[in-house]
Design brief:
The chain is built from eight helices and six strands; from the N terminus they run ααβαβαβααββαβα. The radius of gyration is 28 Å and the shape is elongated. The chain is an alpha/beta fold.
Length: about 230
């Protein structure tokens, strides 16, 4: 800007310079002096647009289950679409999720393992996870740490009776009782695991409900659903 000139004077001066320039020359001038500001503006608009879209279209969770220390390449979206129909989920407003291939290893201190442990703890604290399916050692560890609740608090007597010979009992910490209660169900032969071989190599696999779930009814329906062939 020339000394003593106002911003408006400078704009008028630049406008005069460009008045008789060709379109190509005008573009070159614009690109040289304004490309950074333009790109920043475009990126900001795209970011804000994506953020607004995500917020507006986000659905509340009606159910979330996780396979811990299993592995499968199953199509979880297709499987949960079937569950949505089975459980009569309002899919316009709610979503259901089955997360597979999630590793939890408390015996390892590497970055990946620590990050997963922290992620899972945060998800449980935020009441995002409803059902945990895991190998016996992992299941027992998380039961001892108070992550899993008594199934008698979440499932109907009819359902508990149906799976009576599969129930896993434990003494839940901080539940004001020294009695063992059912905390898991052995499901290694259920259709879901047989079809996906998610826990190939394990003789037993346990199903449990996270202690602070808000979707016990859908957890019970999911238990029924995984035993059905598809």
């Amino acid at each position: 800007m020339a000394a003593g000139n106002s911003v408006m004077d400078e704009i008028r001066e630049q406008h005069k310079k460009m008045k008789d320039k060709s379109l190509k020359e005008k573009f070159q001038y614009f690109w040289e002096y304004y490309r950074v500001a333009t790109l920043v503006t475009i990126l900001a608009i795209v970011f804000i647009g994506n953020l607004v879209y995500t917020v507006v279209t986000a659905k509340d969770s009606a159910f979330y289950a996780v396979f811990v220390n299993g592995y499968t390449d199953m199509d979880t979206e297709e499987y949960m679409a079937g569950f949505d129909e089975y459980a009569q989920i309002d899919t316009k407003n709610y979503s259901t999720t089955l997360e597979t291939n999630f590793t939890l290893n408390q015996d390892s201190a590497d970055t990946y393992s620590v990050a997963n442990l922290q992620k899972f703890a945060a998800q449980v604290a935020a009441q995002e996870v409803d059902v945990m399916i895991a190998d016996p050692d992992t299941f027992q560890r998380y039961t001892d740490e108070g992550f899993l609740g008594g199934l008698n608090e979440f499932l109907s007597e009819e359902t508990l009776s149906k799976y009576a010979d599969r129930l896993i009992y434990a003494n839940i910490p901080d539940d004001d009782t020294e009695e063992d209660v059912p905390v898991g169900i052995e499901i290694s032969d259920c259709a879901l695991l047989q079809e996906t071989q998610a826990y190939a190599g394990y003789d037993k696999v346990y199903f449990g409900i996270v202690v602070n779930t808000e979707h016990a009814e859908n957890a019970e329906k999911f238990l029924e659903y995984i035993f059905q062939e598809h």
